[in-house]
Specification:
The chain crosses the membrane at residues 111-132, 144-162, 174-203, 224-243, 322-344, 356-375, 387-418. The protein contains 15 helices and no strands. By secondary structure, it is mainly alpha-helical.
């Protein structure tokens, strides 16, 4: 009897001790959270200022900054997150950044990651729209240098990811086959289908393998909130066209066009261009000449290609139009990644899902390998001098461990000298 009382006393004392330990921590949650959000914002802004080369190159920049340098996320979790974003509509690189921001600092961290990565190019493209929208910079020497930087960054990312994600001959073969298929099969949804096929192949080969404990992906989002985000995503697709027809207001029409374009894009940001042209040019938001001029300007800025929407919004409705267009085209990506992340973390611990993810990870390497050649290599390395510059930059990044921003500066200078 005395032993029971002593045990109960010890248990009560332990509970009180635990509560007293937790109470001070609760008082510091908000400051720590704000500091984490600020940290995410600063890192994402740096990436937004230096991440040239399009969505494929962005994944390389993210890998170097978040995985290699800061270790905010491990290699396999990063590859799983990339695989998830390849399945979802929207700008994959922006969704990866949002996902990492959410894991690091919650919903505000995801918002900070998006703002930091997006805002620099949005501001530049608004300036292009208002001041320089008719200037052709597509053949400038520094643009050529940035294209070579993109080649180097992607090659560096492929090397690092392949060493860990394709460790056996089966996955190496799968990655190469996916790369070959991606190069010869270029329909709008081909990348999504190839990733799905890679997942099916991985499930077939590895579904009976021992379950590898999945690295913990901290997702500070309730599933009920995630389901609400998915419901809002679907609801807006239905409601916005109705509002557009009912009220015939220009900004509602712009929001509807941009939201629908952002919801229907698979396989990278470049796919959004024909959708935007179809939504905006025939309806008189922008002329075809202005549309093409803005596309050329977009190639000259870092950050996601979806920021092209800021230019289009500024051309059609000024600064307010730029804000509306930017929010509308990125909103589907934000709702989808927030809605999918909590369920993804649970599914990836399943043995069958892990087998599929092994194939998906190999498929991601294959997709990156294909993109290294087309469009990056074929548009950047046009001569033996270009190849020499790319090799020098690759050695500096990979073996001399130069920071990416140094590679960007050297690429700009080298491109201006060469071209």
């Amino acid at each position: 009897m005395n032993e029971r009382k002593q045990a109960a006393t010890v248990r009560d004392r332990d509970e009180l001790s635990t509560q007293s330990e937790l109470q001070p921590q609760a008082q510091h949650v908000q400051p720590n959270g704000l500091l984490a959000v600020w940290e995410v914002l600063m890192v994402a802004t740096k990436l937004g200022l230096t991440s040239f080369g399009g969505p494929t190159a962005h994944l390389g920049y993210f890998h170097n900054e978040y995985v290699r340098k800061r270790k905010w996320i491990d290699e396999h979790s990063y590859a799983d997150l990339v695989g998830l974003c390849q399945f979802l509509p929207g700008p994959a690189s922006s969704q990866v950044g949002i996902g990492i921001g959410v894991m690091r600092a919650g919903l505000l961290g995801g918002l900070a990651a998006w703002v930091g990565f997006t805002l620099p190019s949005v501001l530049v493209l608004i300036a292009f729209a208002l001041l320089l929208k008719e200037v052709d910079v597509s053949h400038a020497g520094w643009i050529s240098g940035l294209k070579m930087v993109a080649v180097v960054i992607v090659a560096h990312a492929i090397l690092g990811m392949a060493q860990k994600l394709t460790p056996d001959k089966e996955r190496i073969t799968l990655a190469v086959l996916i790369a070959a298929a991606a190069l010869v099969w270029t329909v709008p949804y081909s990348q999504v289908m190839l990733i799905a096929l890679a997942g099916l192949a991985g499930w077939s080969m590895y579904r009976k393998s021992p379950v590898i404990p999945a690295a913990t992906m901290k997702i500070p989002i309730r599933r009920s909130f995630a389901v609400s985000c998915l419901a809002i995503f679907a609801g807006l697709l239905v409601v916005l066209p109705v509002l557009r027809q009912t009220f015939n207001v220009e900004w509602i029409a712009l929001f509807d066009s941009m939201y629908r374009a952002g919801s229907m894009v698979f396989g990278g940001g470049h796919v959004v261009l024909p959708l935007l042209e179809q939504e905006l040019v025939p309806h008189g938001f922008v002329s075809k000449d202005d549309f093409l001029a803005g596309y050329g300007a977009t190639q000259a800025v870092p950050g996601p290609l979806f920021t092209f929407a800021a230019y289009l919004g500024a051309v059609s409705m000024g600064g307010g139009g730029a804000i509306i267009a930017t929010i509308a085209i990125f909103l589907p990506a934000f709702l989808l990644i927030i809605g999918a992340l909590p369920f993804w973390s649970a599914l990836r611990s399943n043995s069958h899902m892990q087998g599929s993810l092994a194939g998906v990870n190999a498929g991601v390497v294959g997709i990156l390998l294909a993109a290294l050649y087309q469009p990056l290599w074929t548009t950047a390395v046009l001569s033996s001098v270009d190849f020499a510059l790319a090799c020098i930059l690759f050695v500096l990044l990979t073996f001399w461990k130069c920071p990416p921003w140094v590679i960007v500066v050297l690429g700009i200078v080298g491109g201006m000298i060469v071209h």
